[in-house]
Write a structure and sequence with these properties.
- By secondary structure, the protein is α/β, with parallel strands linked by helices.
- 34% of the residues lie in helices and 17% in strands.
- The strands form two sheets. It has an eleven-stranded mixed sheet with strand order 1-3-2-4-13-12-5-6-11-9-10, with helices on both faces. Strands 7-8 form a two-stranded antiparallel ribbon.
- The protein is globular.
- InterPro entries: IsoCit/isopropylmalate_DH_CS, Isocitrate_DH_NAD, IsoPropMal-DH-like_dom.
- Its main location: mitochondrion.
- GO terms for molecular function: magnesium ion binding; NAD binding; oxidoreductase activity, acting on the CH-OH group of donors, NAD or NADP as acceptor.
Length: 382
């Protein structure tokens, strides 16, 4: 188990370059470099930043190691406090309080996916993920679903943002068996949290130049709970006359997304619907391995893969796609005003995928996790 609060960062051995053309003007595979990767630094502040690192379960530790390797080779001025947090091996896990204290102190976290067992061994209904979100008030989960040039999928040029409220709704852990064989599960919706996520969505659209926000709901059936959510979205929308607003029933949304995903720009959803839709959307652009996400509170941000799949069946096989974790780390760097490094990593990942000679199995190739990481490292300075 990683020591609590230990510095884990970039004390690893440097990976060897893949090819001799690492330093040549033409770059890897003889393809001209992306011009955006060699522009003058956008933001490259002095000093170092400390972030919390939670490797997670499944292939999470392997993917986080790729990030550490890439950060070292890129010279990223970030130090990590690594904490081992898991619900699968409770005796090995560090305490949630220690992890929360670290994130509150650093206000920044890079996180692998935490597995959630189907059954609790101690009768606890609230999962570790839910506890972490509640302790930090990580109310807004943002997944930017965008097509990557070089991945063969049915729909091209997808560019949408799924914003999910993730501190209430069906994930309230309020269940009980009223009589034998009858279970009641409570869905909690509050005006304050519905309005907060709606405001977040419209503020996000305004800041990022988005044109339309769609509220996804089931108010035709859950007239009070989802009706409250829809009403708050409508009231907030009235304060943003330059942003187009629409609403869509969730079951229709799933059909529309797979048939015509280009109609969507920003979607805002309650907890359960958001979890379903962002995973569905990730599948449209290549799957869980290529989409990054982030969870926001008013004080902290946790960056992680956008589709929450631990890929536990691939542990130790060196086949997992590190793209989502690398893109999440690049987003983290942009968030802390290290855009120079964030763009360097993102451009390198985009270039490797676009060239198409190093692809993991989920992208239609046969490359290992290590080979993909080496290719990204070899392209960092292109």
């Amino acid at each position: 188990m990683a020591a609590i609060g230990r510095k884990a960062l970039l004390s690893i051995n440097t990976l060897r370059p893949l090819v001799a053309c690492f330093h040549t003007a033409r770059g890897l595979h003889g393809v001209a470099p992306l011009t955006s990767a060699i522009q003058a630094p956008v933001s490259k502040p002095e000093g170092r930043t400390t972030a919390t690192l939670i490797p997670g379960d499944g292939v999470g530790p392997e993917l986080c190691q790729v990030v550490l390797d890439v950060f070292q080779n890129a010279g990223v001025p970030v130090d990590f406090e690594e904490h081992y947090l898991t619900e699968l091996y409770a005796r090995r896990s560090e305490s949630l309080d220690d992890v929360v204290d670290s994130i509150k102190r650093n206000r920044l976290c890079l996180k692998g996916i935490l597995a959630t067992p189907d059954h609790s061994s101690d009768g606890e209904l609230k999962t570790l993920n839910m506890k972490l979100r509640d302790e930090l008030d990580l109310y807004a989960n943002v997944v930017h679903v965008k097509s990557l040039d070089g991945i063969n999928v049915r729909h091209k040029n997808i560019d949408m943002v799924v914003i999910r409220e993730q501190t209430e709704g069906e994930y309230s852990a309020l269940e009980h068996e009223s009589v034998a064989g009858v279970v009641e599960c409570l869905k909690i919706m509050t005006r304050q949290k519905c309005r907060r996520i709606a405001k977040f969505a419209f503020d996000y659209a305004t800041k990022h130049g988005r044109k339309k926000v769609t509220a996804v709901h089931k108010a035709n059936i859950m007239k009070l709970g989802d009706g409250l959510f829809l009403k708050q979205c409508e009231e907030v929308a009235a304060m943003y006359p330059n942003i187009e607003f629409s609403n869509m029933i969730v079951d229709n949304c799933t059909m529309q997304m797979v048939s015509n995903p280009h109609q969507f720009d920003v979607l805002v959803l309650p907890n359960l619907y958001g979890n379903i839709i962002d995973n569905l959307a990730a599948g449209l652009v290549g799957g869980a391995g290529v989409v990054a996400g982030a969870s926001y509170s008013s004080d902290s941000v946790v960056f992680e893969p956008g589709a929450r799949h631990t890929f536990s069946e691939a542990v130790g096989k060196n086949v997992a796609n590190p793209t989502a974790m690398l893109l999440a780390s690049a987003n983290m760097l942009n968030h802390i005003n290290l855009q120079y490094y964030g763009d360097m990593i993102r451009n390198s990942v985009d270039r490797v995928i676009r060239v198409g000679k190093v692809r993991t199995k989920d992208m239609g190739g046969f490359a290992t996790t290590t080979a993909f990481a080496n290719a990204v490292i070899a392209n960092l300075q292109q």
